From TrEMBL:
GO biological process, one term: carbohydrate metabolic process
Reactions catalysed, as given in the entry: Hydrolysis of terminal, non-reducing alpha-D-galactose residues in alpha-D-galactosides, including galactose oligosaccharides, galactomannans and galactolipids
Cross-referenced Gene3D superfamilies: Aldolase class I
The EC number(s) this enzyme carries: 3.2.1.22
A molecular-function term among this protein's GO annotations: alpha-galactosidase activity
Name of the protein described by the UniProt record: Alpha-galactosidase
Length: 490
């Protein structure tokens, strides 16, 4: 199937005339799962302009060639009283005359004189990267209390707000009257301001838990209008993801490029383990331009001034980090790392620089879990349970931008082990499980996709191979605790 490289933009006469040029077509947004950095795991609500630039420059120098190209400023960029480990509930925010959030000039000095994030976006773009921000569903309570006008209308904030329709865990905003033209006008005005700064990515929070289809659709329409006005595509990412049903997939594809499928993820093995069934459910539904998102990667230097936890390098072991990156890649989830890049340890950066991450997320199809078995030290004695053996496969495919896959005639495979001690494969997994019964006797070559990455400090080396002859060939290797084997077959 040929994947289009452009999409149509609605005619200009569907939008208010504002003097902007409307392009005839735009590139497909998020043609591969986005790869980038988000400030939340390291800085919470307190990120500064200099820290964004430091991460942007590091990404451009060390990770851009491996596919990392987006930076997202998470919550609280408009809060002059932002602090670590939580939100500043009830304090004044930085808003304009229409109630729209604007950057705190103390933390983002280039935003002075009404420039917003324009100068910062320009600096990021000069590095060949993209810039995005986080916003909450709804309208700032401050705008409602002051009853500020809704730009472009005769309405005011109190006409469009729903003061009962609020977020359970962030108190910056009231809701908007769902399905109301005035509410749409407020979103249109907010997104128009964000787009005028040259932003490429919007992470819109409190949209999915509970699930608010009217609000999501309104934001989608606001982005369409802004894209037509400014000629720049904007990727929409929806959060959070608790209880998001896969029955919503057709709707989500129609209105967004990314949607979370879990609540916040941190550097705990249990959090990673819980993503196995979620990604197994969503992976077969991944489509070009529309991606189920397993959440940020809590890797590297996190917790500097974050919502939770102390200043630390990620508590995940080296093998748990490889498992996370492998599972996300095989599930074609977006990859948004949370650690402060310049101060993350070198081994983490080396893992992120693995070209297989982009190769598999951009150039695979048919991604799915094929084996999941509970194993016991004593046959079927529940008390002797030692872990789960989980296998995934995917077919190599050309990229949607026309790039030929490095393994265009082959397959990708991953074998995960959830136990707390190393596990040696003893013929459990046959080669034909990945290449198919019809091709099991072909001349297959295996490439270890983690071979050049930093190995486990406990002495277990990456070692995955094909053993046996003909139809009896199996995948062999020793899998570290909470680890994986990741490979390509040609």
């Amino acid at each position: 199937m040929t994947i289009p490289t452009t999409v149509s933009v609605a005619p200009a006469d569907e939008y208010p005339a504002d003097g902007h040029t409307v392009p005839e077509a735009m590139p497909v947004k998020a043609w591969r799962p986005p790869m980038g950095w988000n400030s939340w795991d390291s800085y919470g609500t307190t990120i500064t302009e200099q820290e964004v630039l430091d991460n942007a420059r590091f990404m451009a120098e060390h990770l851009k060639d491996a596919g990392w190209d987006t930076l997202v400023i998470d919550a609280g960029w408009f809060d002059p009283n932002a602090h670590a480990h939580g939100y500043s509930d009830g304090t004044p925010l930085c808003i304009d005359a229409y109630g729209r959030q604007i950057p705190d000039e103390q933390r983002f000095p280039s935003a002075a004189d009404g420039k917003g994030f324009g100068p910062l976006a320009d600096a990021v773009h000069r590095l060949g990267l993209k810039l995005g921000v986080h916003v909450m569903r709804g309208i700032p309570r401050q705008a409602v209390h002051e009853n500020l006008p809704v730009k472009g209308t005769a309405l005011h904030a109190q006409d469009v707000a729903d003061t009962e329709h609020t977020c359970a865990w962030n108190h910056d905003n009231y809701g908007l009257k769902r399905g109301d033209a005035g509410a749409q006008a407020w979103y249109d005005a907010q997104v128009d301001l964000l787009a005028s700064w040259g932003l490429d990515f919007l992470k819109v929070d409190d949209m999915q838990t509970p699930f608010f289809p009217e609000e999501i659709e309104a934001y989608h329409h606001a982005i369409e209008r802004a894209e037509a006005a400014y000629g720049r595509p904007i990727t929409l990412s929806l959060s959070p993801g608790g209880w998001v049903a896969s029955t919503h997939v057709d709707f989500l594809r129609g209105v967004s490029q990314m949607w979370r499928i879990s609540d916040d993820l941190w550097d705990r093995w249990e959090d990673i383990y819980q993503q196995f069934p979620r990604l197994a459910r969503w992976a077969p539904m991944q489509r070009t331009g529309h991606w189920a998102d397993a959440d940020m990667l809590p890797l590297g230097h996190i917790g500097l001034r974050a919502e939770r936890g102390d200043d630390r390098q990620s508590k995940l072991t080296r093998d748990e980090q490889k498992t996370l990156l492998t599972l996300w890649s095989m599930g074609r989830s977006p990859l948004m790392v949370g650690g402060d890049l310049p101060t993350s340890n070198a081994d983490t950066i080396a893992l992120l620089a693995n070209p297989a991450l982009r190769e598999v997320t951009a150039g695979s199809s048919g991604n799915r879990e094929i084996v999941r078995e509970r194993l016991f030290a004593e046959w079927n004695v529940e008390e002797s349970f030692i872990g789960e053996l989980i296998a995934w496969t995917a077919d190599a495919a050309d990229w949607a931008d026309g790039t030929t896959s490095a393994h265009a005639c082959g397959h990708y495979g991953a074998i995960f082990w959830t136990g707390s001690e190393p596990y040696e494969l003893k013929g459990n997994i046959q080669l034909q499980s990945f290449v198919g019964i019809d091709q099991r006797n072909a001349d297959w070559t295996l490439t270890d996709l983690w071979a050049d990455a930093p190995q486990s400090p406990d002495g277990i080396r990456s070692d995955v191979r094909i053993e046996g002859e003909g139809e009896d060939r199996v995948i062999r290797g020793t899998i570290p605790a909470h680890g994986c084997l990741w490979f390509a077959l040609d």
